[in-house]
Amino acid sequence: MGEPVRCPWCGDDPLYQRYHDQEWGVPVFDDRKLFEMLILEGAQAGLSWLTILRKRQAYRQAYDNFAVAKVAAYTAADQARLCADAGIVRNRLKIAASISNAQAFMAVQQQFGSFADYLWGFVDGRPQVNHFRQLSEVPAVTPLAQSISADLKKRGFRFVGPTIIYAFLQAVGVVNDHLQSCHRYGQPPAQSD
């Protein structure tokens, strides 16, 4: 039996394929994982997702495994440490945003009980499954992403434009955009840890 048919965006890189097969499009309800993906998607702006995947372990180490309360309490010294860390994207604005986003994330948790409850409330708790046949049909932005992006911005989040948010929604399974030809299309989504 040969290689399974995958969405073409993951190419032939084993790390990318593993991410596609095991994570992308799988519904995430864990706030730590949602925070990680929100920060990583923001860090990815202007770069390839594969670049971020390759730096993911370094990000987990640099950001205390994305413990949101720890990141929210980061000081100027922590920001300087992150800006000097060659293992992550050393963009001062993205790093500053990750810290303020942690604070905004905690405010959402306080208001809604969890960030997951807030996020999944936009789709009544059910993934939006699309039925695209070709990669060219998959949009970069949707009304759902625009709505969530606008709401996050009102709540003080940064690096959460609608394109970033649509990629985030795809990554955490709020939207399932596996192509119909993909071996992951139509599979019941496993819950991510």
Give a quick set of tags describing it.
193 residues; mainly alpha; two-stranded parallel sheet; 9 helices
Overview of the molecule:
It is a single chain. Helix 2 (31-44) packs across helix 3 and helix 8 (143-154) packs across helix 9. 51% of the residues lie in helices and 2% in strands. The chain has helices at residues 14-22, 31-44, 49-62, 68-72, 76-83, 92-112, 115-120, 143-154, 162-171; strands spanning 128-129, 175-176. The longest helix is centred in the middle third of the chain and has 21 residues, at 92-112. It is globular, with a radius of gyration of 16 Å. The model has no long low-confidence stretch (mean pLDDT 94). By secondary structure, it is an all-alpha fold. 34% of the residues are buried. Strands 1-2 form a two-stranded parallel ribbon. The chain has nine helices and two strands, in the order H-H-H-H-H-H-H-E-H-H-E.
Lay out the secondary structure:
Elements (H helix, E strand, L loop, with lengths): L13 H9 L8 H14 L4 H14 L5 H5 L3 H8 L8 H21 L2 H6 L7 E2 L13 H12 L7 H10 L3 E2 L17
Parallel strand pairs: 1-2
